[in-house]
Amino acid sequence: MWVEITGIPGSGKTTFSRQLREALIASGSPPHSPVSARVGHRLARWLPWETVHNRILEGRLGGGSTELTGIWHELVGVADVVAVSASERRRLRRAVLRQQQIAAIAAPAATRLLVDEGPRQLLLSLWTRTCSTRIHRHLERLQLPWPRYLVIVECDPRRAYERLLVRGALPYPDRPKDTLPSLLDSATRALRPLTAAAPPSVELVLVRNDGGRTDLNRLAVDFANRITEEELRSSSHGAPSLHGQEQAA
Q: What are phi and psi of 197, to 5 degrees?
């Protein structure tokens, strides 16, 4: 079972992902991350560094393939077009490679796989970096693997901008800082078309994060209970707990 969480930078998706993970652990069946699904929970606890995690997912550790195939190779071409610098091009190419690895892990996943930034986040990142309607239409049509649940954390882009300023870790490091509000606006507009093509087997879950007025932890607990209940219903009918995807890349 694969749960993917997406949203614009500063929306609170990472916070919601962490709280959902904690709620699922409390339910008695801890979820895997892509890294722990590959190397195991125990080893993943000893590898907390983002750089190491990324290298595992890029196939540079753990014996994974580093060859981009099919649609992923096509996305590298998009990344090369939208990048404004060599460093951004390298970063986007690595992001495509990580998503290919995540999709390969998710396809046969029989356990809970929780992905904070999955294929939809990659499409959102590429979309936001260009004003080309031709590229936007192309990204809308791409049939990347889909999760069982796609959680969209929504947030006013102005509130997201304020959070990012407080955090000090701004996204899009190769872009001028004064363009960040317009980039967040573009990302917000892109969420709908990039998720509209979800097949019937995918359940869209909208989480609206309005800051102090939103109890993200309660929403995470409610969603974790919902996942657990569906797993129990599926197992009682002798079916697989939940599938990871129904469309091939």
A: -85, 10
Cα 165 to Cα 150: distance, rounded to the nearest angstrom: 27
Q: pLDDT in tens for each of the 249 residues of the chain? A: 889 999 999 999 999 999 999 998 898 777 888 877 776 666 666 666 566 667 667 766 555 556 777 899 999 999 999 999 999 999 999 899 888 888 888 876 566 789 988 999 999 999 999 999 999 999 999 989 999 999 999 999 999 999 999 988 789 989 998 999 999 999 999 999 999 889 999 999 999 998 776 788 899 999 999 888 887 787 766 543 333 333 333
Full domain range(s) for residue 140: 2-236
Residue 248 lies in a domain: no
Residue 133 placed within a domain: yes
Q: Global pTM?
A: 0.83
Residue closest to 246 by CA, chosen among 123, 150, 126: 150
Q: Say if 244 falls within a structural domain.
A: no
> For residue 26, how many other CB atoms are within 10 A of its CB?
11
Structural domain includes residue 243: no
